[in-house]
Fold:
Amino acid sequence: MARRLLLVLILCLNVTVLAQTGPSSMRQTVYVLRLKPGQDLRAELESFAKKQQLRAAYIITCVGSLNHATLRLANQSDYTRFAGKLEIVSLTGTLTQDGMHVHLSASDNTGKTVGGHLVAGCEIYTTAEIVIGEANDLVFAREKDATYGYDELVVKPK
Structure:
């Protein structure tokens, strides 16, 4: 009896979560990129976003490696360069033809991981396999937020 009650409770919780979030009817387009040795990760993402005229894109996943990385770390105005071969363990963010806000995490050969804002100077070592989604019914914009004075993401219907 207790087992059946637990099963019913779990099913009800799942239905409740589904009811709160609802199914998504948003249409999306998926792009797959493969970058090659020597290419700059940020420059290639910017070029791709402009070429495809992306309006509301987001990075789904990325794996690959870098010869070195340059990042803007949290609450820093200067960039930090990390030398040596690095594995890309995470790339996440939003991008449009007008700009991007992307973070990169990369690890060295000991597993030490660093992360921060993606800036120019992240050179591909062997490859970067990137999957990008675009929400076809939305537009991402950046508008000044009075809290800190930064241009922050604003999502609008297309």
